[in-house]
Structure formats: structure tokens, C-alpha cells
Specification:
CATH topology: Cathepsin D, subunit A, domain 1
Number of helices: 1
Order of helices and strands: EEEEEEHEEEEEE
Length: 132
């Protein structure tokens, strides 16, 4: 039986000086939909979003499971919340970390829970990302 593969090609986001693989996503919480966007980051183990996104979603950050995250910028405290999301017409449940200490300009989509949902291809020449 052939499984139909859905392909979505998304353009990179231009911030005025450079291009980034930032894609749209929708959080599905309590029957409501909340639009957001995040940078696909193959170097991030888990997805991380800032305080502003948590407030928009009505999430009490500290009610999640506490976790310490480390990276190039040092260590920060975050809280894991398992949420339903939709990306490229595909719905799935994924862990998202929310942190008051995360002050980077882009939300990040990390590997855990997201990368196994798609075959992800970055095309730097065309400045697109393909999700299949």
C-alpha cells in the first residue's frame, strides 16, 4: 500500500539582513488555535519558546517540568509542557520548553518530538525548507 507523502516547501524568513528557516506553526490548546513561528534548529535537542509565547497561549510556565538547558549562550531554566501542534497540515504532540530566561529573537523548534514527524531538507541556494 502506497502511503501518500505530503510535501510542504516554505521560504526562509528574511529579517532585513539575513535569511533563516523560520516556519509557521499552530498550537492547538483547549479547542483554540494560536499561530506562532519558530526557527528549525537541528542543534537544539528540544523546542524552546519565550515568556511572551507562554502568555499568549495561557500557559503558566512554572507548572511544567523544570529543566536546565545549556548552549552557546550559557545555561537557563525552562519548564517542559507537552502540547498539540500543527505544522504543514500535520498534527502531533510535542514537548515545548518555555522559559522566562530565554531572550533570543527566535523561538526554536528542536529535534525532540518535531524532527521525527518529518523528513526535513534545507535548501540554502533556494532559501527554502522542505517538510515531507
Amino acid at each position: 500500500m502506497d502511503e501518500k507523502i505530503s510535501l510542504t516547501v516554505l521560504p526562509y524568513y528574511f529579517n532585513g539582513s539575513d535569511y533563516f528557516p523560520v516556519i509557521p506553526l499552530v498550537f492547538l490548546i483547549g479547542g483554540k488555535r494560536f499561530r506562532s513561528q519558530a526557527l528549525i534548529d537541528s542543534g537544539a535537542t528540544i523546542s524552546i519558546f519565550g515568556e511572551e509565547t507562554a502568555e499568549t497561549l495561557g500557559i503558566e510556565i512554572e507548572k511544567g517540568e523544570k529543566i536546565m538547558l545549556g548552549g552557546v549562550g550559557g545555561r537557563i531554566v525552562g519548564y517542559v509542557h507537552t502540547l498539540r501542534a500543527r505544522i504543514a497540515k500535520k498534527e502531533f504532540v510535542c514537548p515545548f520548553v518555555f522559559s522566562r530566561e530565554y531572550l533570543v529573537s527566535f523561538n526554536l523548534l528542536g529535534r525532540e518530538g518535531f524532527f521525527e514527524q518529518f523528513q526535513i531538507t534545507f535548501d540554502e541556494r533556494r532559501r527554502t525548507v522542505r517538510l515531507a
